[in-house]
Design a protein that fits this description.
The protein has helices at residues 2-16, 93-103, 139-153, 207-219, 233-239, 242-250, 255-269; strands at residues 22-25, 31-34, 46-51, 60-65, 68-77, 82-87, 134-137, 163-172, 181-184, 187-189, 200-202, 205-206, 226-232, 286-292. The chain is of the alpha+beta class. The longest helix has 15 residues, at 2-16. It is globular.
Length: 305
């Protein structure tokens, strides 16, 4: 029987490695796999955690002008041999499709981004709302979120046992504008195009756009996945019992360890109101959005989201 189990394990490893997937063994002897795509993951109950995943995906930026909605593009300035942002002379394929799709979605909340002076919460008249002059859209994020939704919704892929996905990132309800940032050596870079290839690029996540995809598919009766949020990381962690967990750990740790844990807890759930020189908390800037299959209840941490 042991030989049969070994043969089955080898066959499984071979099957999982055919598409460039990698396997390994943890220090406790648990076998884990890295996959190039969600499509490569074998069928079975699905639990997806996308922590700071969507902020790394590409975005398109648009401007409202007298020529209509145009796209922000990158061009070479031949005078100083450097990259610069320019506006397209007219509508592009992206501006003609993505702007309309994003702004026609009706938001259930009216949160706004840190750069929200350029946008309002969306409504049926957003396409003609001249107060919205800038917009940022991430079609790649929509594609990946929809793939996760299909995985959770498809009983053939989830083994008939459903699943759930949660996205945790800094972002807001949206629509958003001009949140793209460049980070190098743990510091923000003023000119996004100054050191191409040497900086990490990041953009705030438009959670309203992600939720809108689920709502749209439900209206079309092509999905039965339920979506909750976004809620703040502060609310999520407090409802999940982070304070009680800290109190339990405090029973067996030293004063020095407790100070480190308390500082970490405050960083995770704290807000932006800090004294000069202190690091702002992540509790309000980070949001969480989740979706679950039809057979699951509202998840903990999303009591009224």
């Amino acid at each position: 029987d042991d030989d049969d189990d070994d043969d089955d394990s080898e066959e499984e490893d071979e099957k999982l490695s055919t598409k460039g997937n990698v396997s390994g063994i943890t220090a406790h002897g648990t076998k884990v796999y890295w996959h190039n795509s969600l499509d490569d993951v074998p069928s079975g109950p699905t639990c997806i955690i996308a922590h700071e995943f969507f902020d790394a995906l590409p975005v398109h930026q648009f401007r409202r002008t007298e020529r209509g909605w145009v796209e922000k593009l990158v061009a070479m300035n031949e005078e100083n041999n450097s990259l610069e942002f320019v506006l397209s002379p007219g509508a592009t394929l992206s501006s003609s499709q993505l702007v309309k799709r994003r702004l026609r979605k009706t938001s259930s909340s009216s949160s706004s981004s840190s750069s929200s002076s350029d946008v309002n919460s969306s409504s049926d008249s957003d396409m003609n709302n001249e107060t919205i002059v800038s917009l940022e859209v991430s079609p790649k994020s929509i594609v990946h979120w929809e793939k996760m939704m299909d995985r959770i919704n498809d009983e053939g892929k989830n083994g008939g046992r459903g699943g759930a996905a949660i996205a945790i990132d800094y972002g807001d309800e949206g629509p958003l504008a001009d949140t793209l940032e460049a980070i190098k050596d743990h510091k923000f870079v003023e000119n996004l195009l100054e050191s191409p290839g040497e900086c990490d690029l990041s953009a705030h996540v438009d959670f309203g756009a992600l939720r809108g995809v689920v709502e749209e598919r439900n209206e079309e009766n092509t999905s039965e996945v339920k979506c909750f949020g976004p809620t703040t990381q502060q609310k999520l962690l407090l409802e999940l019992g982070i304070v009680q967990r800290l109190q339990k750990l405090a029973e067996t740790c030293s004063e020095e360890q407790l100070e480190v844990l308390a500082d970490g807890c405050q960083r995770l759930v704290g807000d932006d109101k800090v004294e000069e020189g202190e690091t702002p908390g992540m509790g309000l800037r980070y949001k969480a959005l989740c979706m679950v299959s039809k057979n699951l209840q509202r998840p903990a941490g999303f009591s009224d989201a």
